[in-house]
Amino acid sequence: MAAGPDALSLFAAIGLSEPKARETLKNEALSALLREAVTQAQGILGPTVDKATGTLLYNVASRLKDQKRLRFLVGCITSRKILTDLQLSGEARGSLRWADGKSIKNEVDLQVLHLLGPKTEADLEKKQKAGKAKPAEVERQQKALEENGGVTLETKSLMEQLRGEALKFHKPGENYKTEGYVITPHTMALMKQHLEITGGQVRTRFPPEPNGILHIGHAKAINFNFGYAKANGGVCFLRYDDTNPEKEEEKYFTAIRDMVEWLGYKPHAVTHASDYFDQLYAWAMELIQRGHAYVCHQRVEEIKGHNPPPSPWRDRPVEESLLLFQGMKKGKFEEGEATLRMKLVMEDGKLDPVAYRIKYTPHHRSGDRWCIYPTYDYTHCLCDSVEHITHSLCTKEFQARRSSYFWLCNALGVYCPVQWEYGRLNLLYTVVSKRKIIRLVEAGAVRDWDDPRLFTLTALRRRGFPPEAINNFCARVGVTVAQTTMEPHLLEACVREVLNECAPRAMAVLEPLRVTITNFPTEKALEVLVPNFPADETKGFHKVPFQATIYIEHSDFREVMDKGYKRLAPGQPVGLRHTGYVIAVQNVIKDAGGQVMELEVTCTKSNSVEKPKAFIHWVSDPLVCEVRLYERLFLHKNPEDPAEVPAGFLSDLNPDSLRVMDSALADRSICSAKPFDKFQFERLGYFSVDPDSTEGKMVLNRTVMLKEDPGKV
Hints:
Blueprint: H1 5-12, H2 18-25, H3 28-45, H4 51-63, H5 70-78, H6 85-92, H7 101-116, H8 121-124, H9 135-147, H10 158-165, H11 187-198, E1 203-206, H12 216-231, E2 235-240, H13 250-262, E3 269-272, H14 277-289, E4 293-296, H15 300-303, H16 318-329, E5 339-342, E6 354-358, E7 372-374, H17 376-386, E8 391-395, H18 402-412, E9 418-422, E10 425-427, H19 434-442, H20 457-463, H21 467-477, E11 484-486, H22 488-502, E12 505-506, E13 508-509, E14 512-517, E15 526-531, E16 541-546, E17 549-553, E18 574-576, E19 581-590, E20 596-605, E21 615-616, E22 623-630, E23 658-666, E24 678-681, E25 685-689, E26 698-704
Parallel strand pairs: 1-2, 2-3, 8-9, 10-11, 12-24, 14-20, 18-21, 22-26
Antiparallel strand pairs: 4-5, 5-6, 6-7, 13-23, 14-17, 15-16, 18-19, 19-20, 22-23, 24-25, 25-26
Helix pairs in contact: 1-2, 3-4, 3-5, 4-5, 4-6, 10-12, 17-18, 21-22
């Protein structure tokens, strides 16, 4: 088909740029289908076809395999029965059997994940003939399931998974083999130069905005970016996307790097978008000179939303835009009075995205030198190019920006990396939005960004979550393309698995009841040896004193026994863990209100009496501590969903999310512990020393209970 004026104007009527229209005309089959589709649509809608409809018409013409369905699909688009590209993808294939198997598999896998939990290593291995498991092994597996909320904990390591991802992605230097990659006359020369600089090494980057604290979703991004590079012999940059000076603070820069290193990763280099401000400005001038950008005076509110009006300044002379852009840099315009916009249409229908805007806010690194700042759409791909990133890994919502990513690099004739998308990781019963966390802090619902009821990484560290557990959780979620929303108890199961191996045992009581042993066998205290890890006594013991006055949990005593109750009661003795003694109640001492204040008991060597029904923990000569017990911050799974919480997330706060036990008692084996040291308090759970601890009083956070509370699941 000839590239005639009629064809160009026809394709321009649906929003195609002239270069795109000319490129389309080179493909005769595509041009014929698109001409037929547009003509049919104009016959129904009139000569004006909105951009969103035009995009769908172009997509149906470029994807359709069965030409007989063209008229039907165009009818569906013009009658608004098909509104999204996702709907179009399904209809264009005619039936499910012709659908994209990978997309269906991702969706099915996600649904199975919600129902059954992550795949285990056994699921991933080839099935062998089943043999009968030994009774002890069956019992062990059942116990593990019960203790971890029904989730098995074996899976492929993250490194194994990410090495597997390398088979799906392009090899360094073979960017042009990626679907959708635009090859220009300069591509191969730029690729040769790129390989000379990188030596063929994988290069990724983690590019957070320094305007808040990282959260659990970022943990997946960190693991994916740093982990993919590590698994494939490459390097990863930590690059701060510091292009919004109004919201950036030094504490966020520090906390971000701390969290990356806490998770076990060391950046190849720490860079900033602001490192490249001079180069980015020079490229913006070049973009204008090439006719790909212009200065616009439409206000932000005018160009927001779907199908905004085209800019009346889109075709202003290059020389005029150059002078105006220089004037923006020199501070000759008010904020919002002018922007620099790029001449392209993005995949989501966004027209001419903004490249630069005016902000009279000092920058934390460059001070008052700049009053214009580049946007993400302009900055990100060019910073990737400067740093010779091979794989620009980002979450799925940036998929609509992939074509603009390629466009801008090619418009400037610079090395073009490849953007790859993966699914976000979200958790139920929480919010991670920076804006909403700030509202929680301002409302006094949480203390700060690191309040242990939040799921920011600093909060999880403060609560006592080991970094290995967070990385294991990311591995068990898997490197999925689909967005994943998980239950918190799956993360907690990973925490238990790690802490079981690394948190030494100790004894503590949260609600103490004083017990006096009236026939204690010696005048002085006895020393009792307690194993740090009962399952492996080679890891050592610690000593605790055992004397006539001890303290037990108030809940471990009842005056009247219920059926099935096995702990201490009049007429029912119990064993004291690790001592070799059994105690029996002789006298119950109460206050004037009838509250039990103290017990008087006798003790007997356990080998000389019938084995008791239960053994309880205790402390003697204890350390007084403050213990903080945490529950979920929100009552509903999706506190941000108006259907679940019509009054908004602040109305969904759990009034019992924090309980403080300010007179808890712990054995003195923990007295030299430092902030973030972790212990398992026997029968109570895993605990971590809080930074609020002082020489006068230790503060401990309960990280997780020993097994999942069945009421939560």
